[in-house]
Automatic annotation (TrEMBL):
EC code(s) of this entry: 1.5.1.54
The protein's name in its UniProt record: Methylenetetrahydrofolate reductase
Record's catalysed reaction(s): (6S)-5-methyl-5,6,7,8-tetrahydrofolate + NAD(+) = (6R)-5,10-methylene-5,6,7,8-tetrahydrofolate + NADH + H(+)
Native organism: Desulfomicrobium macestii
Keywords, comma-separated and alphabetical: Amino-acid biosynthesis, FAD, Flavoprotein, Methionine biosynthesis, NAD, Oxidoreductase
Family the entry assigns: Belongs to the methylenetetrahydrofolate reductase family.
PANTHER family noted in UniProt: METHYLENETETRAHYDROFOLATE REDUCTASE, METHYLENETETRAHYDROFOLATE REDUCTASE (NADPH)
Organism lineage: Bacteria, Pseudomonadati, Thermodesulfobacteriota, Desulfovibrionia, Desulfovibrionales
Protein backbone atom coordinates (compact mmCIF):
# COMPACT_ATOMS: atom_id res chain seq x y z
CA UNK A 1 0.00 0.00 0.00
CA UNK A 2 1.19 3.53 -0.73
CA UNK A 3 2.60 5.31 2.33
CA UNK A 4 0.80 8.49 1.22
CA UNK A 5 -2.44 6.60 1.84
CA UNK A 6 -1.29 5.01 5.10
CA UNK A 7 -0.43 8.45 6.48
CA UNK A 8 -4.03 9.56 6.07
CA UNK A 9 -5.00 7.34 9.01
CA UNK A 10 -3.85 10.04 11.41
CA UNK A 11 -2.95 7.71 14.28
CA UNK A 12 0.47 7.97 15.93
CA UNK A 13 2.75 5.33 14.42
CA UNK A 14 6.25 3.93 14.50
CA UNK A 15 8.14 3.18 11.31
CA UNK A 16 11.57 1.57 11.11
CA UNK A 17 14.76 1.99 9.11
CA UNK A 18 17.09 -0.93 8.41
CA UNK A 19 20.30 -1.23 6.44
CA UNK A 20 21.24 -4.29 4.35
CA UNK A 21 24.06 -6.21 6.05
CA UNK A 22 27.04 -6.33 3.66
CA UNK A 23 27.97 -9.89 4.48
CA UNK A 24 25.46 -12.45 3.23
CA UNK A 25 26.26 -14.66 6.24
CA UNK A 26 24.59 -12.01 8.45
CA UNK A 27 21.29 -12.13 6.60
CA UNK A 28 19.61 -14.86 8.69
CA UNK A 29 20.36 -12.83 11.86
CA UNK A 30 19.12 -9.69 10.12
CA UNK A 31 15.82 -11.30 9.16
CA UNK A 32 15.47 -12.57 12.71
CA UNK A 33 15.57 -8.92 13.85
CA UNK A 34 13.00 -8.04 11.17
CA UNK A 35 10.76 -10.86 12.42
CA UNK A 36 11.03 -9.64 16.02
CA UNK A 37 10.31 -6.04 15.06
CA UNK A 38 7.32 -7.03 12.98
CA UNK A 39 5.51 -7.28 16.35
CA UNK A 40 5.70 -3.50 16.62
CA UNK A 41 3.19 -3.23 13.78
CA UNK A 42 5.35 -0.62 12.02
CA UNK A 43 3.49 1.57 9.54
CA UNK A 44 6.34 0.89 7.10
CA UNK A 45 9.93 -0.36 7.08
CA UNK A 46 12.56 1.44 5.08
CA UNK A 47 15.75 -0.14 3.74
CA UNK A 48 18.77 2.01 2.94
CA UNK A 49 20.68 2.07 -0.31
CA UNK A 50 24.46 1.44 -0.19
CA UNK A 51 26.46 4.67 -0.15
CA UNK A 52 28.27 3.81 -3.39
CA UNK A 53 25.10 2.60 -5.08
CA UNK A 54 26.81 -0.77 -5.59
CA UNK A 55 24.54 -2.80 -3.35
CA UNK A 56 21.21 -1.81 -4.83
CA UNK A 57 20.34 -5.47 -5.45
CA UNK A 58 20.54 -6.06 -1.67
CA UNK A 59 18.02 -3.26 -1.05
CA UNK A 60 15.74 -4.70 -3.70
CA UNK A 61 15.99 -8.25 -2.38
CA UNK A 62 15.38 -7.21 1.22
CA UNK A 63 12.32 -5.04 0.48
CA UNK A 64 10.93 -7.87 -1.65
CA UNK A 65 11.34 -10.38 1.17
CA UNK A 66 9.91 -7.95 3.73
CA UNK A 67 6.81 -7.62 1.61
CA UNK A 68 6.38 -11.20 0.45
CA UNK A 69 7.63 -13.22 3.44
CA UNK A 70 6.98 -10.88 6.36
CA UNK A 71 3.88 -8.99 5.23
CA UNK A 72 5.52 -5.63 6.01
CA UNK A 73 5.05 -2.40 4.05
CA UNK A 74 8.51 -1.62 2.66
CA UNK A 75 10.03 1.68 1.58
CA UNK A 76 13.10 1.25 -0.66
CA UNK A 77 15.73 3.99 -0.55
CA UNK A 78 17.29 4.98 -3.88
CA UNK A 79 20.07 7.48 -4.59
CA UNK A 80 21.47 9.33 -7.60
CA UNK A 81 24.93 7.80 -6.99
CA UNK A 82 26.02 5.88 -10.07
CA UNK A 83 22.57 6.51 -11.50
CA UNK A 84 21.50 6.48 -15.09
CA UNK A 85 18.04 5.98 -16.60
CA UNK A 86 18.58 2.28 -17.28
CA UNK A 87 19.84 1.47 -13.81
CA UNK A 88 17.18 3.46 -12.01
CA UNK A 89 14.49 2.13 -14.33
CA UNK A 90 15.53 -1.45 -13.65
CA UNK A 91 15.49 -0.87 -9.87
CA UNK A 92 12.04 0.72 -10.00
CA UNK A 93 10.69 -2.02 -12.28
CA UNK A 94 12.03 -4.53 -9.73
CA UNK A 95 10.03 -2.77 -7.02
CA UNK A 96 6.89 -2.83 -9.14
CA UNK A 97 7.32 -6.56 -9.88
CA UNK A 98 7.74 -7.28 -6.18
CA UNK A 99 4.61 -5.31 -5.32
CA UNK A 100 6.59 -2.66 -3.41
CA UNK A 101 4.72 0.65 -3.60
CA UNK A 102 7.13 3.10 -1.95
CA UNK A 103 10.50 4.68 -2.63
CA UNK A 104 12.61 7.27 -0.78
CA UNK A 105 14.31 9.42 -3.44
CA UNK A 106 17.71 10.74 -2.36
CA UNK A 107 20.75 12.34 -3.86
CA UNK A 108 23.34 10.42 -1.84
CA UNK A 109 26.41 11.60 0.04
CA UNK A 110 29.86 12.51 -1.26
CA UNK A 111 32.35 9.62 -0.87
CA UNK A 112 33.93 9.32 2.58
CA UNK A 113 36.52 12.02 3.18
CA UNK A 114 35.15 14.31 0.45
CA UNK A 115 32.99 17.33 1.19
CA UNK A 116 31.39 17.96 -2.20
CA UNK A 117 29.06 15.73 -4.15
CA UNK A 118 29.95 15.18 -7.80
CA UNK A 119 26.96 13.85 -9.73
CA UNK A 120 27.55 10.75 -11.87
CA UNK A 121 25.11 11.93 -14.50
CA UNK A 122 23.75 15.15 -15.96
CA UNK A 123 20.22 13.96 -15.49
CA UNK A 124 20.33 12.99 -11.80
CA UNK A 125 22.10 15.72 -9.85
CA UNK A 126 19.65 16.38 -7.02
CA UNK A 127 17.05 14.43 -5.11
CA UNK A 128 14.41 16.42 -7.02
CA UNK A 129 15.64 14.98 -10.37
CA UNK A 130 14.95 11.49 -9.09
CA UNK A 131 11.52 12.53 -7.80
CA UNK A 132 10.56 14.00 -11.20
CA UNK A 133 11.72 10.89 -13.05
CA UNK A 134 9.85 8.53 -10.74
CA UNK A 135 6.69 10.64 -10.77
CA UNK A 136 6.70 10.64 -14.56
CA UNK A 137 7.67 7.05 -15.36
CA UNK A 138 6.52 5.14 -12.24
CA UNK A 139 3.53 7.19 -11.23
CA UNK A 140 1.99 4.48 -9.02
CA UNK A 141 4.82 4.71 -6.49
CA UNK A 142 4.47 6.80 -3.35
CA UNK A 143 7.61 8.94 -3.04
CA UNK A 144 9.34 10.15 0.12
CA UNK A 145 12.25 12.59 0.37
CA UNK A 146 14.74 13.67 3.06
CA UNK A 147 14.40 16.87 5.12
CA UNK A 148 16.89 18.51 7.47
CA UNK A 149 15.65 20.20 10.68
CA UNK A 150 19.13 21.65 11.20
CA UNK A 151 19.72 22.32 7.46
CA UNK A 152 21.60 20.10 5.03
CA UNK A 153 25.35 20.60 5.65
CA UNK A 154 25.97 21.85 2.09
CA UNK A 155 23.06 24.31 2.03
CA UNK A 156 24.04 27.99 2.31
CA UNK A 157 21.07 28.77 4.54
CA UNK A 158 17.94 27.25 6.02
CA UNK A 159 15.79 29.36 3.68
CA UNK A 160 17.68 28.04 0.66
CA UNK A 161 17.39 24.45 1.88
CA UNK A 162 13.64 24.86 2.48
CA UNK A 163 13.21 26.22 -1.02
CA UNK A 164 14.96 23.08 -2.38
CA UNK A 165 12.70 20.95 -0.24
CA UNK A 166 9.62 22.80 -1.49
CA UNK A 167 10.82 22.05 -5.04
CA UNK A 168 11.23 18.31 -4.27
CA UNK A 169 7.65 18.23 -3.02
CA UNK A 170 6.44 20.21 -6.03
CA UNK A 171 8.12 17.58 -8.25
CA UNK A 172 5.88 14.93 -6.69
CA UNK A 173 7.06 13.85 -3.21
CA UNK A 174 4.27 12.66 -0.91
CA UNK A 175 6.05 12.78 2.44
CA UNK A 176 9.29 13.81 4.14
CA UNK A 177 11.45 11.87 6.59
CA UNK A 178 13.85 13.98 8.61
CA UNK A 179 17.50 13.56 9.32
CA UNK A 180 18.13 12.53 12.93
CA UNK A 181 17.99 15.31 15.53
CA UNK A 182 18.12 15.48 19.32
CA UNK A 183 16.33 18.74 20.04
CA UNK A 184 12.60 18.53 19.38
CA UNK A 185 12.32 22.31 19.06
CA UNK A 186 14.47 22.03 15.93
CA UNK A 187 11.89 19.64 14.43
CA UNK A 188 8.87 21.79 15.32
CA UNK A 189 10.59 24.97 14.05
CA UNK A 190 11.41 23.15 10.83
CA UNK A 191 7.81 22.00 10.39
CA UNK A 192 6.52 25.53 11.03
CA UNK A 193 8.95 27.02 8.50
CA UNK A 194 8.11 24.33 5.95
CA UNK A 195 4.39 25.03 6.33
CA UNK A 196 5.09 28.76 5.99
CA UNK A 197 6.69 28.24 2.56
CA UNK A 198 3.83 26.05 1.39
CA UNK A 199 5.12 22.52 2.07
CA UNK A 200 1.98 20.67 3.09
CA UNK A 201 2.99 16.97 3.08
CA UNK A 202 3.55 14.95 6.30
CA UNK A 203 6.97 15.46 7.90
CA UNK A 204 8.01 12.34 9.82
CA UNK A 205 10.66 12.87 12.52
CA UNK A 206 13.65 10.50 12.32
CA UNK A 207 14.89 9.43 15.76
CA UNK A 208 18.16 7.70 16.57
CA UNK A 209 18.37 5.91 19.92
CA UNK A 210 22.10 6.33 20.53
CA UNK A 211 23.77 2.96 21.02
CA UNK A 212 27.44 3.65 20.45
CA UNK A 213 29.37 6.86 21.04
CA UNK A 214 31.98 6.43 18.30
CA UNK A 215 29.27 5.59 15.74
CA UNK A 216 27.28 8.66 16.81
CA UNK A 217 30.32 10.92 16.34
CA UNK A 218 30.96 9.41 12.91
CA UNK A 219 27.38 10.13 11.84
CA UNK A 220 27.45 13.66 13.20
CA UNK A 221 30.59 14.39 11.19
CA UNK A 222 28.68 14.22 7.89
CA UNK A 223 24.94 14.47 8.51
CA UNK A 224 24.69 18.03 9.82
CA UNK A 225 22.88 17.15 13.06
CA UNK A 226 23.99 18.43 16.45
CA UNK A 227 23.73 17.10 19.98
CA UNK A 228 22.73 19.42 22.85
CA UNK A 229 25.82 20.10 24.95
CA UNK A 230 24.40 18.62 28.15
CA UNK A 231 23.40 15.39 26.40
CA UNK A 232 26.82 14.98 24.77
CA UNK A 233 28.65 15.49 28.06
CA UNK A 234 26.32 12.97 29.76
CA UNK A 235 27.06 10.48 26.95
CA UNK A 236 30.81 11.06 27.35
CA UNK A 237 30.50 10.61 31.09
CA UNK A 238 28.55 7.32 31.03
CA UNK A 239 30.88 6.05 28.33
CA UNK A 240 33.87 6.70 30.56
CA UNK A 241 32.28 5.11 33.62
CA UNK A 242 30.17 2.27 32.18
CA UNK A 243 31.32 1.84 28.58
CA UNK A 244 28.93 1.23 25.69
CA UNK A 245 26.25 -0.35 27.90
CA UNK A 246 25.98 2.98 29.74
CA UNK A 247 25.69 4.80 26.41
CA UNK A 248 22.92 2.43 25.31
CA UNK A 249 20.98 2.94 28.54
CA UNK A 250 21.21 6.71 28.37
CA UNK A 251 20.46 6.73 24.64
CA UNK A 252 17.36 4.62 25.17
CA UNK A 253 16.00 6.87 27.93
CA UNK A 254 16.67 9.98 25.87
CA UNK A 255 14.98 8.54 22.78
CA UNK A 256 11.91 7.53 24.80
CA UNK A 257 11.45 10.99 26.26
CA UNK A 258 12.09 12.58 22.87
CA UNK A 259 9.41 10.37 21.29
CA UNK A 260 6.87 11.02 24.06
CA UNK A 261 7.39 14.75 23.68
CA UNK A 262 7.15 14.61 19.87
CA UNK A 263 3.85 12.75 19.97
CA UNK A 264 2.44 14.93 22.76
CA UNK A 265 3.20 17.98 20.65
CA UNK A 266 1.48 16.60 17.55
CA UNK A 267 4.11 14.81 15.44
CA UNK A 268 2.34 12.31 13.16
CA UNK A 269 4.53 9.39 14.24
CA UNK A 270 8.20 8.52 14.57
CA UNK A 271 10.68 6.89 12.21
CA UNK A 272 13.23 4.91 14.23
CA UNK A 273 16.77 4.42 12.99
CA UNK A 274 17.02 0.84 14.25
CA UNK A 275 20.68 0.18 13.35
CA UNK A 276 19.32 -3.36 12.83
CA UNK A 277 18.99 -3.88 16.59
CA UNK A 278 15.80 -5.37 18.02
CA UNK A 279 16.02 -4.85 21.81
CA UNK A 280 16.14 -1.05 21.88
CA UNK A 281 13.22 -0.76 19.47
CA UNK A 282 11.13 -3.29 21.40
CA UNK A 283 11.73 -1.32 24.59
CA UNK A 284 10.72 1.94 22.88
CA UNK A 285 7.63 0.25 21.49
CA UNK A 286 6.48 -0.79 24.99
CA UNK A 287 6.86 2.83 26.07
CA UNK A 288 4.94 3.97 22.98
CA UNK A 289 2.04 1.60 23.79
CA UNK A 290 2.00 2.70 27.44
CA UNK A 291 1.80 6.31 26.35
CA UNK A 292 -1.26 5.55 24.26
CA UNK A 293 -2.82 3.53 27.07
CA UNK A 294 -2.80 0.47 24.83
CA UNK A 295 -1.01 -1.83 27.31
P1 LIG B 1 19.09 16.94 -2.21
O1 LIG B 1 17.65 17.14 -1.97
O2 LIG B 1 19.56 16.88 -3.62
O3 LIG B 1 19.85 18.09 -1.41
C1 LIG B 1 21.27 18.04 -1.25
C2 LIG B 1 21.83 19.47 -1.17
O4 LIG B 1 21.67 20.13 -2.42
C3 LIG B 1 21.11 20.35 -0.15
O5 LIG B 1 22.04 21.22 0.40
C4 LIG B 1 20.08 21.11 -0.98
O6 LIG B 1 19.76 22.34 -0.38
C5 LIG B 1 20.83 21.28 -2.29
N1 LIG B 1 19.98 21.28 -3.50
C6 LIG B 1 18.90 20.52 -3.75
N2 LIG B 1 18.40 20.79 -4.96
C7 LIG B 1 19.22 21.74 -5.50
C8 LIG B 1 19.26 22.44 -6.76
N3 LIG B 1 18.33 22.22 -7.69
N4 LIG B 1 20.26 23.33 -6.97
C9 LIG B 1 21.21 23.56 -6.01
N5 LIG B 1 21.20 22.95 -4.81
C10 LIG B 1 20.24 22.04 -4.57
N6 LIG B 1 22.20 8.22 1.75
C11 LIG B 1 22.48 7.05 1.09
O7 LIG B 1 23.52 6.97 0.41
N7 LIG B 1 21.65 5.97 1.17
C12 LIG B 1 20.50 6.00 1.90
O8 LIG B 1 19.77 5.01 1.94
C13 LIG B 1 20.17 7.21 2.60
N8 LIG B 1 19.02 7.30 3.34
C14 LIG B 1 18.69 8.50 3.94
C15 LIG B 1 17.47 8.59 4.64
C16 LIG B 1 17.12 9.80 5.26
C17 LIG B 1 15.79 9.89 5.99
C18 LIG B 1 17.99 10.91 5.21
C19 LIG B 1 17.63 12.20 5.91
C20 LIG B 1 19.20 10.82 4.53
C21 LIG B 1 19.56 9.62 3.87
N9 LIG B 1 20.75 9.48 3.16
C22 LIG B 1 21.07 8.32 2.49
C23 LIG B 1 21.70 10.60 3.12
C24 LIG B 1 21.46 11.54 1.91
O9 LIG B 1 21.82 10.88 0.73
C25 LIG B 1 22.32 12.77 2.15
O10 LIG B 1 21.82 13.52 3.23
C26 LIG B 1 22.61 13.64 0.93
O11 LIG B 1 23.72 14.47 1.25
C27 LIG B 1 21.46 14.54 0.48
O12 LIG B 1 20.41 13.84 -0.04
P2 LIG B 1 19.05 14.60 -0.45
O13 LIG B 1 18.20 13.63 -1.15
O14 LIG B 1 18.51 15.33 0.69
O15 LIG B 1 19.65 15.64 -1.51
Amino acid sequence: MRIAQLLQRQEPFLSLEFFPPKDRAQWPGFFDVVRQLRDLGPLFCSVTYGAGGSTQHNTLEIVTRMKQEYGLEPLAHLTCVGADRARIGSFLSGLAQAGVDNVLALRGDPPRGESTFTPDSEEFQHGSDLVSFIRQDFSDLSIGVAGYPEKHPEAPSMDDDLERLRHKVACGADFIITQLFFDNDAYFDFVARARAVGIGVPIIPGILPVQNLAALKRMLSFCGASVPEGYMSDLEHVHKVYGESGVRGLGLGYAKSQIRNLLDRGAPGVHLYTLNKADTCLDIWKDFLRRDGLK
